[in-house]
Amino acid sequence: MRVVLIALLASAAACGDDDGGGAGEDGGTDCTPPAGEAGIVYLNRDGATYTRGPESSVDNTTTVVEAETTFEPHPYADGNWNAIVRCFRDGVSPFHIDVVEEDPGAVDHTEIVFTTTWSDPGVASISAFGCAGYPRGSAFIFGDLFDETAAQPECELALQQFGVVAAGLDHSFECRDYMSYLRSGCDGKEWVDEPLPCGELQERDCMCDRAAQNSYQIMLDKFGPHCAE
After folding, report:
1. Contact 60, 106 (CB under 8 A)
2. 41 within domain boundaries
3. pLDDT averages per 10-residue partition of the chain, 229 residues
4. Is residue 181 included in any domain, yes or no?
5. Domain for residue 65, yes or no?
6. Which pTM does this prediction carry?
7. What per-residue confidence (pLDDT) applies to 4?
8. What is the CB neighbour count within 10 angstroms for residue 166?
9. What DSSP line would sit under 126-165, residue for residue?
10. What is the pLDDT of residues 122-137, one digit of tens each?
11. Domain that includes residue 100, residue range
């Protein structure tokens, strides 16, 4: 399945929490690090030019553009950017993921391009979607729709798009979850470790033949846990 997910402008559990990990020999949480390299996500504030083609953050190709498209640099100053980066790092901290601000080159990585605006000025973000995610996917966040002081909602949208393009996550119909558009009635967002219904502004069936979606477990299966040394 390949579709394009568009967002219209309308802290996570620790590794091996009580539901997910057994006790180690010292009585603490048993957290076994993954055998492979950490997943990489590149937060790009400098702009980029993409052409239409298979999802590739290395070759700067994506199915979300019809022709060569230049994305301008992120419009806000260092204070806003540093707050976004801190928030994003906190958001993925339960998982075996490295967050970088320099292009990692010709290796598998997700690229999140923080830019100004889209051809439809009401669109806050866009990315391709596939049920398995993309090892070299890209997502685009349109900062002109956010106030410069609003780093948190821009970061949370970036985390949502990371879940979409890297892990094949659907939108959830639960405001506590990063994958949800809903905000009212929640103190904050996280990767919720329980099965949730799917939907945007109303509940619907989940995509990818899922009866429900546990965003935390899908991310954990995809990237493995982050284990403190």
Report:
1. no
2. yes
3. 48 34 42 83 98 98 98 98 98 97 98 97 97 98 96 97 98 98 90 98 97 98 89
4. no
5. yes
6. 0.87
7. 53
8. 26
9. EEEE-TT--TT-EEEEEGGGS-TT-HHHHHHHHHHHHHHH
10. 999 999 999 999 999 9
11. 3-7+37-171
Closest to 86 measured CA to CA, from 104, 71, 103, 99 = 99
Q: Distance between CA atoms of 10 and 201, rounded to whole angstroms?
A: 9
Tokens 């009580």 found at: 18
Of 96, 76, 118, residue with least CA distance to 36: 96
CATH number at residue 132: 3.40.390
Q: End-to-end alpha-carbon separation of the chain, Å?
A: 38
Instruction: Decide: residue 27, CB within 10 A, 0-12 exposed, 13-18 middle, 19+ buried.
Output: exposed
- The whole-angstrom separation of Cα 181 and Cα 119 is 21
Where helices occur in the chain by DSSP H, the ranges are 78-92, 151-167, 215-223
In a domain, 176, yes or no: no
Q: What total of structural domains would you count in the chain? A: 1
The length of the chain in residues reads: 229
